[in-house]
Write a structure and sequence with these properties.
Blueprint: E1 6-10, E2 19-23, E3 32-41, H1 44-52, E4 66-74, E5 86-90, H2 93-96, E6 107-111, E7 115-117, H3 124-127, H4 131-141, E8 148-150, E9 153-154, E10 174-179, H5 184-195, E11 199-204, H6 209-214, E12 219-222, H7 228-237, E13 242-248, H8 253-265, E14 269-273, E15 286-290, H9 299-304, H10 306-312, E16 321-326, H11 331-340, E17 346-350
Helix pairs in contact: 4-5, 7-8
Length: 351
């Protein structure tokens, strides 16, 4: 039986459309699996990689972070998967630089430690929204020591517990604010924090507050409310728990100004960002950092939590996917739509 043909959506230089063309069929190295992709999802990071070439180590390249599909090949030392398994995976081309590690292809290499079995009742399209956001959420919440993110910027180190499968945990003794709680990473951070027994105060658009509640947020606030800062401060003070800090899934000058005002009134804490954090007028008792969403801290979550949590419904495939089309030729359209802005959804291309 002849080997299948692989194709990929290649980026040949920054700020150009992707070009669909032939690609080598990858093989799995030690600790790796190869997926035959059924669905891939877009993230804002992908847009930055296309527009500016950030993290690109060789040209041409194939990027993309989120895949869902079936295991095609298994590398040495991998005993957690078998060929044909339905799997979701976080691709790490931004670290390795290898085109074979990018999502936008028919076949992709994924580290076995960044993959999880997808329960049979969940579609590949739904599952594709999960993996990158799961790892980003763990990096926002559970890193214990700051590490390098980019020159002059460290990662946040909130040191919070991992999510748990237990149905009931001790009453929440810690509180965090998730700003941008309807974004993909905001949704997953809310779910992971709630599953760890952490009290979550969520900030989102008025039309997305129900989504934040569905993810487990204890209190939700409209970011357009003129008194939102004061309401968040009051909610944190009345929570009878330790205020840890803020995860800002939006990370703009406007949100930073609000975050710092909240932190000042609550005695300081952590500010974890998805873009370079503020550097001016940051109080000495505020620790700022930018998440880097590739970290071994997530291994335990992929191994022990993701699959059973998806199976039980404790972890939900949210925000829901919007299917842009079927085939690699639709990745460009999906990236354009992502750059134009989406709300409470994640764009997916089926393959």
């Amino acid at each position: 039986m002849s080997a299948p043909k692989n194709q990929a959506a290649w980026l040949k230089k920054a700020n150009t459309p992707l070009e669909v063309g032939d690609a080598p069929l990858p093989s799995a190295g030690a600790g790796e699996i190869v997926l035959k992709n059924a669905a891939v999802a877009m993230s804002p990071l992908d847009c930055h990689m296309q527009d500016a070439g950030v993290f690109v180590q060789q040209w041409p390249t194939v990027f993309g972070c989120d895949v869902a599909g079936e295991v095609y090949d298994i590398g040495f030392g991998v005993d957690t998967f078998k060929k044909g398994d339905r799997v979701i995976g976080h691709c790490i081309n931004l670290v390795t630089g290898r085109p074979s590690d990018g999502a936008y292809a028919l076949f992709t290499v994924v580290p076995a430690t960044k993959a999880a079995i997808l329960p049979e009742h969940i579609s590949f399209t739904d599952g594709a929204v999960v993996p990158f956001a799961v790892e980003a959420a763990v990096c926002a919440l559970s890193v214990k020591e700051p590490g390098p993110c980019m020159p002059g910027v460290l990662t946040p180190a909130l040191g919070l517990p991992y999510p748990s499968l237990q149905e009931s945990l001790a009453s929440a003794s810690k509180t965090i604010v998730v700003y941008g709680a309807s974004s993909s990473v905001g949704v997953m951070t809310t779910q992971n924090a709630t599953a760890a027994g952490i009290n979550v105060i969520a900030v989102a658009g008025a039309h997305n507050l129900d989504l934040a509640k569905r993810c487990g947020a204890a209190q939700v606030f409209d970011h357009e409310d003129s008194s939102v800062v004061e309401k968040i401060i009051d909610a944190a003070k009345s929570s009878n728990s330790e205020f840890v800090g803020i995860f800002d899934a939006i990370s703009t000058p406007d949100t930073y100004a609000r975050n710092l005002a909240i932190l000042e009134k609550l005695g300081g804490g952590h500010l974890a960002c998805v873009h370079p954090p503020p550097s001016d007028n940051v109080p000495s008792n505020v620790k700022v950092g930018m998440i880097f969403a590739v970290n071994d801290v997530a291994t335990r979550v992929f191994k022990d939590f993701v699959t059973p949590a998806l199976q039980s419904g404790k972890l939900k495939c949210l925000p829901p996917p919007t299917i842009v089309g079927k085939g690699l030729q639709h990745v460009n359209d999906a990236l354009k739509k992502s750059k134009a802005g989406v709300s409470a959804t994640k764009l997916v291309v089926e393959l």
